[in-house]
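Handout, page 2. Input:
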Amino acid sequence: MKKSGGFTLIELLVAMGIMAVLTGMAVFNFNQSRVRARDVQRKNDLSQLQKALEAYRNDNNEYPGANYQASLISPTAYINVSFSDVRASEWVDYEYLPGANNKSYYLMTCLENAADAAKTTNETLCALFSDQANPCRCGHTVDNRTGVMYIISQP
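Output:
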C-alpha cells in the first residue's frame, strides 16, 4: 500500500485550532493596546488643560469659571483648541469643577482601563462628579459604566 504525502484530517484540525487560539490572543492584545492608548491621550489632554489653567491663574489671580475652555481659548489663547474625549459622543467628556471663589479646581476624565493604577479611588472626591451608588465608576451609560474616574485637582 502506498501512502500519500498529505496531512490527515486530525492534523489539519489541530493546526487550525492552534491558529484560531493565536489569532484570538492577538486580537485581544490589540484591543487592550487601543484602550490604553486612548487613556494615555485622555491623561495628556488633562495635563495640557492643567497647564493652561495655571497660566490663566497666573494672569488673572483665579481659575476660570464653569465655561473654562472658552476662557482659555479667547482672547488670550492659553490653548488653541477645545479638548474633548477621544471617543467623543460615545463616552464621558472631560469635566471641570471650579472650587470656592475660583481658587481651586477639579478636572475629571473617565478611563476605559479599570485596572489603571492612576484611577481615583477616593469616593468622596468621585462624588463631586457622580451621584451614583458607586461614584468612581463612569462610562458610556449609567447601565454600562465600565470605566473609572481619573481626577486632577489643584491645590
